Amino acid sequence: MTEWIEWFQLDFMRQALLASFLAAVACGIIGTLVVVNRMVFLAGGIAHAAYGGVGLALFLRFPILPVVTSFSALCAFFLGIITFRKPHHTDALVSAIWSIGMAFGALLVSLTPGYQSDLMGYLFGSILTILPSDILIMLILDGVLIVWISLFYQEIVTVSYDPEYAQVVGIPATAIYYFILVLTSITVILLMRFVGLILVLAMLSIPSYLAEHYSGSLKVMMVLSSIFSFVFMALGLWVAYELNLPAGPVMIIISGISFSVVEAINYVCRHKKS
Amino acid sequence: MDNTGKAVVEFENVSFSYDGHEVLKDVNFRVPERDFLALLGPNGGGKTTLIKLCVGLLRPKKGVVRVFGVDPGKVRHRIGYVPQDINRNKEFPISVFDVVMTGRLAKKKGLRRSISEEDRRKVEEILEQMHLSSYRNRRIGELSGGQKQRVFIARALVGDPEILFMDEPTASVDPAFQTELYDLLRQLNERLTIIVVSHDMSVLSSYVKSIACVNGTVFYHGAQELTEEVVTKIYHCPVELIAHGVPHRVLKEHR
Fold this sequence. Notes:
The complex is a heterodimer. By secondary structure, chain A is mainly α. Helix content of chain A is 85%, strand content 0%. Chain A has 12 helices and no strands. The mean pLDDT of chain A is 87. By secondary structure, chain B is an alpha/beta fold. Helices cover 29% and strands 24% of the residues of chain B. Chain B has 8 helices and 9 strands. In chain B, the strands form 2 sheets. In chain B, strands 5-6-7-3-8-9 form a 6-stranded mixed beta sheet, with helices on both faces. The termini of chain B are close together.
C-alpha cells in the first residue's frame, strides 16, 4: 500500500495517470466506433501511414503533432473515399496506403540527420515523457468527441448499425462515416504517444471488444471501454514502473491477458449452457 | 396497365446497371394509390434493385423514378422500407427498442435528430402491435429470425409511412405470424400502398391486388387482369411458373 502511495506521489506518474485517463476516454469512444463498424484494419492503416507524417515533420523541421495529425487525417479521408468506391478491395488498398506511408516516413527520417533515435519512441510510445501541452491537447480532443457524440448520437448509432437504412431515412451516412474516420485518425495519433505506433491497434480494439459483450447500447459500450482502457493503462504504468519495463508494451500485454481470460470464461459459460 | 387513381410510384424508361452489368432495362410502369403489389421473378432478375430505386438507395442510370410524383429522396418521411438482409451486424449492441426508434428519424428535419416523447410512444405502440413489447430491451442479436423480421417491419411502420416497400418480409417468419402479418398488411392497405417482393405466392396471392413480373424488365398486371380465377390458379403454383408462364401459364403473355 505504501508503495502505491509512493508511486502516486511521483510527479511524472501523476501526469502519466492523468494522461492515461484522458486517452482512455477518447479510446473508449473511438474504439467502440472502430470495433462496431469493423474498421480496425482501416485504423491500422491510418496509424502506420501516420509515420509518413512523422518523417515529413522531422525532415521539414516542423512541429510534429500538427503535421502528423493533418497528414493522417488526410490519409483517413483518402482511405474513406477509396473504401467507399471499391469496398471489395478495401484490404488491398489499406495495405498499400499502410506500407507507402511507412516507407515514405522511413525514407524522410533516414534523410534527416540526427533524429534516428526518436524512432523507438514512435514505435513503442513514451507515456512517461508526456508534456503539459499534450494533456491540454487531449483534453480538447475528449471535449470535441464528447460534444460530437452527444449531438449526433442517434445518427451515429443508425449509421453504424445499418448504413443502408440510415440513407433511407435521410441521414448523410457517408459524411458521418468520414467523420468517424478522421476522428479515428486523430485519436490514433494521440494514443500513439502512449503505446506507440505498433501497439495502438490493441488499445483501440481490445477494450471495446471486451465491452461489446456486456453492453446493451453504444453509450454503455463507450463508457465501459473507457473504463477498461483506463484500468489497462494504469495497471500497465504501475507494473512497468515496478519491473522497470517500457509502459506501452506492458499495457498491451495486460490487455491481452484480460482478453484471453474473458474469452476463456465466455467459452466455458457457452459450453456449460449447451 | 391500371390507370385508375393517382400513381404513387412511376418508372419512366428506367435502366440500371452494376459495373456495366445491366440489371434493369427500359422499365415503365405505374403503381396506383393503395395498390398491393407483389414483385415476382427469378433471383437476379432485379427485384431488389427495383425496390432500392424506389426508396432512393440507388439512382437510375437512365430514366426517372418518381414516388408521390417527386424524387424518392424528397419524400423519405412518407416511405417505409423493410430490407432483405436482416442478419447484418449480429453482435451490435443495440436494443429492439432502439432499432425500431431509427424508423422515426426520417420524420426529423435539420441537422440534429432528437427523440421526443411522441417518438417513444409511437415505438411502444408499434412494439405492442407486433407482439414485441416483452423483447423491447433485448439485444437485437439475441432474437430469432422471425422475431428479428418483426422488428424490421415495426421499424418500417413506426414512421407512419404512406407507402411500404418490403423485400421478402416473410423469408424467416414462422407460418402463424406470416398469416397474421398479411392480415395486418391488408388492414394497412386500406390507407397505404404496399409493394412487396415475395417468393411465397401461396399465401400472398389471396391478399395482393396486382402483380409485377420482374426479370430485366417489368410487366405490370393490374387489378382487372387479376380476376378471381387467375388468383385461384396462382394460389397453388410455384412463383417461377407464374413469372415465366410456361408451361403453367396463368397470366396473359407479356407483350
